[in-house]
## 1
Amino acid sequence: MEYAEVAEAAAGKMELYRHDPGGWRGCRQAGEVAVSWRPSAEFAGNVYRAEGTVAASPRDVWECIKPVAGGRRTKWDQNVKDFEVVEAVSDTVSVCRTTTPSAFMRIISPREFVDAVLMKEYEDGTMLSAASNVEHPLCPPRPNFVRGFNYPCGCFCIPLPGEPDRTQLLSFFQTDLGGYLPQTVVDSFFPASITGFYSNLTKAVKALKA
């Protein structure tokens, strides 16, 4: 499998989503974070868009969310129990396995995800992490986890002109949790989980700066 091609394609999808305002329906607002959704073209579920500002520089926000071995994500993101780089394909592309704890009052059991991940920096200072599901010989399904699948997803850390200590964080989540979950559970879980992601990230950035 060409992992770099999968990761590049995911980044391309993120660009399309970023510049496509059509069809998004608001579903949750929490502070400065707005979450909306529309039906996914990738699988029989939804793609979620979240947009908000974080009171920190893009570099500090990126430090907290970048998908690297030994990164900070497992320390603050309640939905990430473990993160490992399975294969470093290049300086910017890797295959990663993420495991998640049980969630939603244990209705959602622990999951694992295997993705090709791309990190990219744009000329204006915007940083992107994009990912999509892959298979890897070192990552067979494990018995204690349900295998979930991330379809093209990612986060943009976007500088705000004239505001060096604030960052626009634009995120897209497109996940098939796998297993046999009622759709009502899935539809309730994601908006709440996404706003929690922003809230916990804000706290993590404050701790980083302290």
## 2
Amino acid sequence: MSSYLKVSGTKVADGDGKEVVLRGAGLGGWMNMENFISGYPGCEFQIRTALAEVVGPVKSGFFFDKFLEYFFQEEDAKFFKSLELNCIRLPFNYRHFEDDLNPRVLKEEGFKHLDRVIDLCAQQGIYTILDLHAAAGGQNTAWHCDAGTHIANFWLHKDFQDRTIWLWKELAKHYANNKWIAGYNPLNEPTDPTHTAVIKFYDKVHDAIRSVDTEHIIFFDGNTFASDFSHFGDMHKKWQNTAYSIHDYSVYGFPASPEDYVSSDEQRQRMKKSYERKREWMDQHDLCVWNGEWGPVYARRQYDGSATDPINERRYKVLKDQLAIYNQDRLSWSIWLYKDIGFQGMVYVSQETSYMVLLKDFLAKKHRLAVDAWGADTAQVQHIYQPLINHITEEIPQENQNLYPFPVWKLSDRVGRLSRSILVTEYLVKEWAEHFRGKSEAELDEIAKSFKFENCLRRDGLNEILMDNAQTRSSS
């Protein structure tokens, strides 16, 4: 690799000024584990603590290290490249690099697997984007910032922000000379209720990164889950070599879709309007847009039975229609996600593996209780939460019902979501960990191996669409 990628007007370009359209996926569930991806309840810090209590810290550390090792290896990189994709977004958790009880002391071991995967991708000609998915204090209201709460305390305490700026400076120093890194994504999906603190933070983290690394692209997410740039004004004039990230999930790709997706003119127009609204500020200022997350979730035969194939065919229509929109703009994107246990991944862990056999009944219980917020199907539990939703709706004045991040979270979604994904999951964490009691290191190793590429199935419908799209666009 002879040159860094750069932002050139509205596009990403190589050192010769040739446009590079980044098309790839996010490696979610790896260095930032997520409940629906990896098959546990609650947040990563909770299950790490619980497993250490059940099997001891040595065996727990061994298991999670092996999990990280097996989750992405050379076989994964080769398969990814075979689809003619060229970029992987690498979400990571700040806890790999810093302890809350020992802040601002860099944990060098955090680079072990991140360096390894960046190098594996580079060997296959795949760019990477480093994504801080979980920052100290929690930068958003969701589970995936690993804070265990729906209060985004990152915006309430200056020290959380200062620690994150310190961490990015350390990361940028470490990776400054790596040209296979397309850039840095300093903060995933912020939810700043003031809409202005996020801009001030971006200004500071931009300057910190640029003090040690003037070359890599910086990808800034919009506020409110990467959907809103309406308060950014002229700040882009201060920021060098910067692109702006939207996350463009379509409601039609999820169980809560208001209707079956048939690719009607009206449905495709609604999808396009949502996308255009998210990128409006960038288009007004001729700025570079990157779609850092998008993509449907998929039905699973063990839960959805005979409806599985018809549902997934509709989801593939959503996928194709979104790609058609992006292709018109030659948009760079990273679909969510590469690997999981069967809900959204391009590849997914086989039901026959040790991990899935061990947790089969527990995972079915999790699904029935709808404790994972992402793509939850609440059909079996809505009757439990509806009285609480009704109670709050009746007792709280209308003008006080729309709490931020409304309208992304409406009252009914918020009440059910927080009740299930925070309260109920607390009582499931130990139950998950108890499945590992008495396991030897050899058995733990075998369980972790479930996530190896050789033990995964491929979602061919999804992968064929992505590869066909890549081939079509590369020839155009």
## 3
Amino acid sequence: MSKRSASDRETDGQAFAKASGSGAKRDENEVNDIGEFEDAWEDEIESEEEVVDGETGDGEDGMDVDEVMPAIEESEELPPAPEAFIPGTHVLGKDEILEPDDSVYIMRHSMNVTWPCLSFDVLRDSLGDERQRYPVTAYLVAGTQADQASKNELSVFKMSSLHRTQKDGDDSDSDEEDDDALDEDAILEFRSVPHHGGVNRVRAQPLAPASPLPPASQPYFTATWADNGKVHIWDIRPLIESLDVPGYSWDKSRTNKPAFTINSHGRAEGFAMDWASSGNANPSSLRLLTGDVHSKIYLTTTTPSGFNALSQPFTSHTSSVEDLQWSPSEPTVFASCSADRSVQIWDVRSKGRRSVAGIEPAHESDVNVISWNRSTSYLLLSGGDEGGIKVWDLRNVQKKGTTVLPSPVASFKWHTAPITSIEWHPTEDSIFAASGADDQVTLWDLGVEPDDDEMGTSMNDTPDGARDVPPQLLFVHQGQKDVKEVHWHPQIPGAVLSTALDGFNIFKTISV
């Protein structure tokens, strides 16, 4: 991956400024007391010229005249510049709030939903790849966490009118205004089907890059991990069609009931889940991995007649399986992470359904999430309960039976609470996004290296009381509460979506 110096970055990566409840006070001019007087010559002033002369005569007639006070002007003293809020260094005061700095966002929209969604996935569409023109449209699928099991739903959302963010100081008098410059409210539409039980995780089947959305007659599968121990597979393609075609009526027998339900986990719920496809050779051949809190991983495959849940589990973990990732380059290999602090590497062809390699321990605490780099297939990201992020070179991971513990090629301790989600950029092999329970979404670039000569000071020199900001940290997005998951949009370069207790955010920064 290419390297760039820290000074090449366009921004310090801080998207929110701290706004104080107290501003600068303007200077008030003192006003003299006005005394009463009697104008003895009032009847002799007969014209405007005489009035003017009388006012400007500087008391020639010996009469006391009030001094004309100049208009009170605003003080030329500038208000204090907004202070960049750095988590861990600054603390909001009683009357302070975070205000986004839209000068560092190309696009930023927030959308509220009825019930919070712990998990979502971005859906591919037929609007093209590498989309740069605004407004943009995005589709996603999400599952709810309602206050009653019977109120939960699986929903397909269509976010449209996602305009470029209008910044303060933009020239509104330009004669070349177009749709890109508009700053209108985004539109959120959705179609839902009932889902019994809360949804812990949602994943849509993978579609090959540059491939169009399947026609409405063909399925587009999405899997949900329910909190009652069931894994359901749904066909959501008709829901997408109903969002795009006015008056479209879908067959409820096709959408309102799962196409298949995996009962392999019994009553044990779980969170870990990942799809894989056999690619262009056989795009209909899908594989789905699911892992539960009882340390078991099950594989479900597709056949010409439907889905087939294999009964023998993969068992090497000793605690809850938290996340799963198929290898982007080897169709039989996958990785898992667990609350037992380990990351395991598996091959479905191995006998005994045991892992073939592992990192034990990978973190100080539970390993919550992992992400496999799709461009550089030997790089694996992991995020832990202690807030740490680590990058692993899988070429250094030894097979089972060896005692050599590999070291991460990079390690970051910026987040102050558990990492809840992590994902490599779909095309840039050095960039990734992460979210944490500390209400931060962070963007990172491993290609940034400190350049002491160019910066003028050592990167290790941190002012007293300040927090050391890693040069690889490009951006900190805040404003959401209890962020649960973050994904890049594969067709809108640099666009990031996140879900939290208070709804969805979609944004694109000047950093990526």
